[in-house]
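User: Sequence in, structure out. Go.
Assistant: Echoing your sequence, followed by the structure tokens.
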Amino acid sequence: MQAVILVGGEGTRLRPLTSTVPKPVVPLVDRPLIAYMLEWLASHGIDDVIMSCGFLATSVRNVLGDGSRYGVRLRFCEEPDPRGTAGALKFAEPMLDEHFLMLNGDVLTDIDLTEQIAQHRRTHARATLALVPVDDPTAYGLVHLHDDRSVSGFLEKPSPDQINTNLISAGAYVLERALLELVPPERNVSIEREVWPRLVEHGLYGYPSERYWLDLGTPARYLQGTFDIIEGNVRTALRERLGEGWLAIAPDAQVHGRAIPPAVLERGVVVERDAHVGSLVVLGQGVRVGSGATVERAVILDGTEIGPGCVLRDCIVSGGCRIARDTHILGGAVLAEGVTVGADNVITNGARIFPGVTLPDGAIRF
């Protein structure tokens, strides 16, 4: 079966990680974010994938190539202007088979697509929505099902007294191409708001799953997804690399301090004496951690240098940053590419520092 992945958004919720890099190819542990979805598709025998792109499409194509390294044939469809979820499908219609999968590109999951497709065929559905339970249904649109799993209705962001299900859409759909007759061409059309309601009681089904699912659209969720990958909470190709010790250290990495699993240390990493990295840490290629520094529950991307005595915890630091001695970066803070932070700064409380900013010594205690 064929799949279409919608990756046309600008990734505004994930900024500043997406200020210079398109969201689909933002690094996630040891590969582009979208690679996990491509490998998941390939594991279910889906090898023909169309990327429906908009923002920085050329950059996405340059990173992913033809998809062969992820086990798929990758093709690209570039919208001339934003057309919404259904409008993007309509634009890609000439490339689509009679039956196909549609996926939101900012999701990390291991839902059983093989069984979802099988249910779609058994029920002769026009569309089958993967559904997952959530702890707080008030923040989502809920999907109600009949006993035969046909959809009986939707309820958007309900109040607590309205809740009688906790199932939400997981952004993975099995579709019949014929339903695109409901979508007018060359318009911005939402499949969620304008197509699904018309299919209620007319061939729309849900496939409830208890498998892992996470929307990676914010820095906090990006961090959570990173931790879940390296802890093995979601099935990914990284599991074999981590091994039984849950610690992946490149052969040329120099660890003179301590590395606590689970953690991933890439090529050229240097951890100086008395430094402590982990647990729940990813250090990208060429990262240097100075003596006596502590890095915990954090992602540090390629080429960043961390000075002596620094503390980095619950944070994301993009590539090419320079962090001088005794600086603390904590509490969900995010640094974009090329940021320079002088000595004795404290950056915390979810602060976001955008590309190229320079902070002198002692400039901020956020």
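User: And one key feature?
Assistant: The mean pLDDT is 92.
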